[in-house]
Amino acid sequence: MEVKNDIMVSVICTAYNHEKYIRQCLDGFVMQKTNFIFEVIVHDDASTDKTADIIREYQKNIRKSLSQFFKKLINTRKELMSAN
Asked: What pTM did the predictor assign?
């Protein structure tokens, strides 16, 4: 199977406290057989469980393009309310 070199498809996945399900989700992405390069972008929305750790594990161990973006909580709701 000839593989094209440019990324042709971007898969974007958001996650928040999906520790129980994120492995199955990521496995589904990376097991795809294609003749083109695709990337998986996972946005962890500041999970408080082990979701981010699992994403990092996949990022280290999988050869396909797996990017990870962590949402940084800049302000708490209380800080936002006091600013008004």
From this structure: 0.67
